[in-house]
UniProtKB/TrEMBL annotation:
InterPro entries: DctQ (IPR055348), TRAP_DctQ (IPR007387). It is a multi-pass membrane protein. The complex comprises the extracytoplasmic solute receptor protein and the two transmembrane proteins. The chain crosses the membrane at residues 20-41, 68-87, 108-131, 151-170. This is TRAP transporter small permease protein. One of its GO terms (cellular component) is plasma membrane. Belongs to the TRAP transporter small permease family. Part of the tripartite ATP-independent periplasmic (TRAP) transport system. One of its GO terms (molecular function) is transmembrane transporter activity. It is found in: Cell inner membrane.
Length: 180
């Protein structure tokens, strides 16, 4: 059976996304080990620089390692939301339609996407963009010798939501076809 462009795109996005998230998880584990190790030997700051580096500033500290862990945890938690949606593993109330025909299920999912997901994305994408833009404009950084440039992590919110919106759009196109 030949693969449709939607299935091809879904497979590629899923593979790339999961691969990137697996690397992020390895980095997170490495940061945890480093933070515990440097904390045990009471090494703080871990490294200092003559000039400020993006995100790190002039030093890598125990707090910046801890901040990086939290930031990666947010990325690992939010970024796969679109993949979960494309894989049809998201939460919903299946008992409403689990024994119904596929066309009826497609119509129900389409109605849910249009009635609930679309209005959510209209509001959330704008708000999350403003949230990240304010952090960028104010050059927000950590108050406790942690990471600088907090707009980077705050930008994950609109990016993650945009990827989720793209996944919902891809599914909606498929549902329109299947609901006929």
């Amino acid at each position: 059976m030949e693969q449709s462009w939607e299935e091809w795109l879904q497979a590629r996005v899923t593979d790339l996304g999961l691969r990137a998230l697996s690397y992020a998880l390895l980095v997170l584990m490495g940061l945890i080990v480093l933070q515990v190790l440097f904390s045990a030997v009471d090494l703080n700051p871990v490294a200092t620089f003559q000039a400020a580096w993006p995100l790190l500033g002039k030093a890598i500290t125990l707090n910046s390692l801890l901040d990086a862990q939290w930031h990666l945890l947010v990325i690992i938690g939010l970024m796969p939301a679109g993949l979960v949606w494309l894989m049809d593993r998201h939460v919903r109330v299946d008992f409403f339609y689990q024994r119904r025909a596929l066309r009826w299920q497609a119509r129900t999912n389409l109605l849910g996407n249009l009635a609930f997901a679309a209005p959510f994305f209209v509001m959330a994408l704008q708000a999350s963009w403003n949230f990240a833009a304010r952090a960028w404009a104010s050059d927000e950084g950590s108050r406790n010798a942690g990471l600088n440039d907090l707009w980077l992590i705050k930008a994950v919110l609109p990016i993650g939501l945009a990827l989720l919106a793209l996944a919902v759009l891809i599914e909606t196109v498929r549902l329109i076809r299947d609901a006929r």
